[in-house]
């Protein structure tokens, strides 16, 4: 397949993130083979593919968990070396992992500000922390009354919202959501998707990794398909169907070549 850079985001907006020719190997395993990806400010990009497609590996490269073997990452047009999660955060990139990475025995407010609690005289300013947590949750349309509850007592849907609120507390330009609606109830899924729309309205870009195509089609502007560590398709949501995207996921390079012919 002819290699090409990912097309510009919807509306011709300047690129927030551009990944060019990203390669990553683990021993003899070629996890990424020259992957391209682009995201514009405030855009929601769906990232789909089978379990060995390289989706999570690509996002771990973007957030500094992995160092690429080759390729370039540009943030707002500037080439950047992202050597650690701290570099990623400095550039305004946050990732919410599928396991949420929350401390179940701690309350919601403490989790949102985990590791950066406001202090005075060596003591945590619990009231200030709760006030800020309430503000963040309220702005996202999440019940601020949960700030004092232990995370382990919350439903999976509410834990997902807390994890997203923690990411938002860093005032990111881009939030990456790894399977944000997996194993959630219908009501919880709608709440998470509503939160994605709210973040977009505030200009926060998102990359959503998901096996649930209906959820991608409900909120995303574009979808990128990976297979075996390669780009095999990119579509604007309004110009495609779930069946077409599923065909790309299943058939990969052969399907894409057939469509071009």
Which oligomeric form is depicted? single chain
Largest sheet properties:
6 strands, mixed
Strand order of the largest sheet: 6-9-10-3-11-12
**Mean pLDDT over the full residue set:** 89
What's the gyration radius in Å?
Answer: 19 Å
Instruction: Figure out the total of helices.
Output: 9
User: What structural class do you assign from the helix and strand content?
Assistant: alpha/beta
Tell the overall outline: globular
Distance between the termini: 12 Å
Helical amount: 25-40%
Following the backbone from N to C, one meets helices and strands in this order, namely: EEEHEEHEHEEHHEHEHEEHH
Strand portion: 25-35%
Task: Label this structure with key terms.
261 residues; 9 helices; disordered C terminus; four-stranded antiparallel β-sheet; alpha/beta; six-stranded mixed β-sheet; 33% helix
Description:
With 261 residues, the protein is α/β, with parallel strands linked by helices. The protein has helices at residues 55-62, 85-90, 108-112, 126-139, 156-168, 186-201, 213-219, 242-251, 253-260, and strands spanning 17-26, 29-39, 44-48, 70-75, 78-80, 93-96, 119-120, 123-124, 174-178, 205-209, 222-227, 230-236. The strands form 3 sheets. The chain has a 6-stranded mixed beta sheet with strand order 6-9-10-3-11-12, sandwiched between helices. Strands 2-1-4-5 form a 4-stranded antiparallel beta sheet, covered by helices on one side. A two-stranded antiparallel sheet has the order 7-8. β7 (119-120) and β8 (123-124) form a beta hairpin. α5 packs parallel to α6 (186-201) and α8 (242-251) packs across α9 (253-260).
């Amino acid at each position: 397949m002819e290699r090409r850079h990912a097309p510009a985001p919807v509306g011709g907006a300047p690129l927030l993130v551009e990944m060019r020719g990203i390669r990553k190997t683990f021993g003899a395993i070629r996890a990424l083979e020259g992957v391209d990806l682009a995201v514009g400010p405030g855009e929601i990009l769906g990232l789909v593919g089978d379990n060995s497609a390289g989706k999570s590996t690509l996002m771990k490269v973007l957030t500094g968990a992995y160092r690429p073997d080759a390729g370039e990452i540009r943030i707002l047009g500037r080439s950047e070396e992202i050597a650690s999660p701290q570099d990623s955060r400095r550039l305004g990139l946050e990732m919410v992992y599928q396991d949420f990475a929350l401390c179940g025995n701690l309350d919601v407010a403490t989790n949102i500000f985990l590791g950066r609690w406001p202090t005075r005289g060596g003591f945590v300013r619990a009231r200030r922390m709760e006030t800020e947590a309430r503000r963040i949750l309220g702005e996202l349309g999440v019940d601020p009354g949960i700030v004092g509850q232990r995370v382990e007592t919350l439903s999976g849907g509410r834990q997902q919202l807390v994890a997203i609120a923690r990411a938002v507390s860093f005032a990111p330009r881009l939030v990456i959501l790894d399977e944000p609606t997996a194993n959630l109830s219908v009501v919880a899924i709608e709440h998470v998707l509503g939160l994605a729309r709210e973040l977009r309205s505030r200009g926060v870009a998102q990359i959503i990794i998901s096996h649930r195509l209906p959820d991608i089609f409900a909120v995303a502007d574009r979808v990128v398909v990976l297979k075996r560590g390669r780009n095999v398709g990119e579509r604007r949501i309004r110009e495609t169907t779930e069946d077409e995207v599923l065909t790309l996921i299943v058939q990969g390079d052969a399907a894409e070549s057939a469509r071009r012919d």
